[in-house]
Design brief:
The longest helix has 15 residues. The strands form two sheets. Strands 1, 2, 6, 7 and 10 form a five-stranded antiparallel beta sheet that branches. A five-stranded antiparallel beta sheet has the order 4-5-3-8-9, covered by helices on one side. It has 155 residues and is mainly β.
C-alpha cells in the first residue's frame, strides 16, 4: 500500500509537470525545500539519514524525495515505510507534508549495493512538491561522495 502512495505521488508529479521545479513558470504557491543529513558506507552497505525542511513561505501539502546511487542496488532491499524502488539505482521516499518554515520527520534507510565498491556517489533531490514551486533548487539537490570507510559524510 505504501508503495502505491509513493508511486501515486510520482505519477501526479509527472502529470502536473513538477520534475522538481526550478525557476519555471509554475503558478503554485512557493516553498523552499532542503535536505540535510549524513551517509556512510561499509562493505557495500550504505546508511543514509536526512531531515527535510521547508524554508517557506508556503506549506507543502506532500513531498517525495529521490535518492540515486552511482552503483546498482541489490535486487532485494529492506526499505522503510514510505520508500520504494524506482529503478536499478533509485529509491523514492515520501516525506509528507511540511509546514512553512518547518522540519519534517527524519528519514533513515539502509541499502545494499551490488558488489563492494570503494566509493559511491549519492544524489538527493525533490521529485514531487505537492504543487508548490521551488525557485531555489540549490538546497534541495544534494550530491555526496561516500567512501567505503565507515565514516559519516554530511550534506
Amino acid at each position: 500500500m505504501r508503495m502505491l502512495v509513493v508511486w501515486g505521488a510520482v505519477g501526479v508529479a509527472a502529470v502536473l509537470g513538477w520534475g522538481g521545479g526550478g525557476s519555471g513558470s509554475g503558478g503554485g504557491p512557493e516553498a523552499d525545500l532542503a535536505y540535510h543529513g549524513a551517509a556512510s558506507m561499509a562493505g557495500g552497505r550504505v546508511d543514509v539519514r536526512f531531515t527535510p525542511r521547508n524554508h517557506g513561505p508556503s506549506a507543502v501539502p506532500d513531498a517525495t524525495v529521490r535518492l540515486r546511487w552511482s552503483e546498482a542496488l541489490v535486487d532485494r532491499q529492506g526499505l522503510p515505510a514510505g520508500c520504494a524502488r524506482s529503478g536499478e539505482r533509485v529509491v523514492l521516499c515520501r516525506v509528507g507534508a511540511l509546514a512553512a518554515d518547518g522540519l519534517g520527520e527524519r528519514v533513515e534507510l539502509r541499502v545494499r549495493l551490488k558488489g563492494v565498491p570503494s566509493e559511491v556517489l549519492l544524489e538527493i533531490d525533490t521529485v514531487w512538491g505537492g504543487g508548490t514551486v521551488d525557485r531555489n533548487r540549490s538546497n534541495d539537490r544534494q550530491r555526496v561522495l561516500v567512501l567505503d570507510s565507515g565514516d559519516e559524510y554530511y550534506f
